[in-house]
Amino acid sequence: MDFSTFINNLTPAAIFFYVLSFLTILCGLMVVLARNPIHSVLFLIGTFFCLSGHYVLLNAQFLAAVNIIVYAGAIMVLFLFVIMFLNLKQEDEESKTNLVKIAATIVGGTLGVIMVGVLRKSQFGSYNPYEFDSQVGMVESLGNVLYTDYLLPFELASVLFLIAMVGAVMLGRREAGDRHF
Amino acid sequence: MAFSIDAAFIIKAIIILLIFAITLLIATYSTYAERKVAAFIQDRIGPNRAGPFGLLQPIADAVKMFFKEDFIPSHASKWLFILGPCLSMLTALMTSAVIPFGDSVKYEAAPGKVWDVAVQAIDVNIGILYVFGVVSLGVYGIMVGGWASNNKFSLLGAIRAASQNISYEISMGLAIVAILMMTGSLSIRHIVEQQHGGNWNIFYQPIGFVIFITCAFAECNRTPFDLPECETELIGGYHTEYSSMKLGFYLFAEYINMFVSSAMIASLYFGGYNYPGMDWVQAKLIAAMGEITGHNLATLVGTLVFFGKSLFFVFFYMWVRWTLPRFRYDQLMNLGWKGLIPLAIVNVILTGGAILYLKPLVVSLLK
After folding, report:
1. Percent helix, strand, coil in chain B (nearest 5)?
2. Which pLDDT score is estimated for A89?
3. Which A residues 78-117 touch B at CB under 8 Å?
């Protein structure tokens, strides 16, 4: 199949898929390649957006919205906060010695090799597109599964969050006689 | 690759364009209304030079904004400096997509074949979450703009605005959780439809409403929570370095946010396009004008009622601005974290209890 027939046979969903995938990979690469950490964070937000677009294409609207709210809306704002206060604008040359670069290459390369190996070995589950329930990603079915089949893990995760929250409050608590300003 | 264009598509496109245009128009005239309301409350005359009653004042303001020098500070990060106001405007305009402005428009494409198009840009089944996602992104416009200005006051103002928005988003979400427990749907259209017949959520959720409107004030950076802009401490806050239409975008986005949050309040707590006696009006109109025209006219009346409710809350924003003094920043944080969040959690628990025990009791008593 040559390229022009491939382009002509694309459905609108497929066009969205390819454009989104291209943007996702581009943003992901820019996270690593950008020199300024603020730009990296903004590209990471862009990556989350593209991933949410993929969720919408898979008809998992709830997951898409929650991905935006939690990652792009809450966690990345805190990232931005910290980085803005650190004032990393001028290039910090000390952290870019050859030793650090070699170590980073080895670690990243090893991770890459492991992921390629896992991908080669793994079997992808197959599904029948004609019997596939398009409503499986909707809020109702997700809630049903969470509160029946996965009730215990779900409740345990919420307890874990509560512990994390209490821990954060304890760490940030003002001691008696302690003033921050 | 073919997109089919039919009558429903064209009606939908017109509705979306109209919603967009009306949102912009209302935001434009909110700037005028703000000055007029301020003048009325302070016993002044207000703008009355440009056009009759000063009605051309917003246009004069826009022209002034456009003709001012568009200045970018020398050490500012240029692209992010431009991106900031764009993001603010974009997120402000995106929210109105899921708000149901009216019931539906009927159109007879062929005899016996009637299209029924909802007066709403998109009816997604996660409407409220969509609004939350977009609102939580609104912070980026401010933060990016404040940081890119390369000015300490801008950065401090941006940090202030962002932490205020994040803090109040939580209690806002918890206030809405109580409504979701009652309706069992995330779609704003479903929530509005369930308030049909005077069943407005304000009667069931008075605490939730107070929490929600307080948080809406904080999210829009309106008085008494207009802390990001503070002349004595921070000069202009995050938009200190901005001039010309970039500043205009920031200011204008605030008015759009005001209108959209008013529309959200109207649809979540005050029945949206429902009004007392709407069934009677619809029956009369259908009897007088026929099935399709009558239905469309009834929808139009409902939409006008919805705009009336929304505009009342826009007025309420302005009323509060000239009535209440502003908070201090630590008071704002105390109110958000120690006042509103516990109150919202209590509200969620009370709602849960009422649904579990009170409702069966009332139902059994009524039998």
Report:
1. 70, 5, 25
2. 54
3. 80-81, 84-85
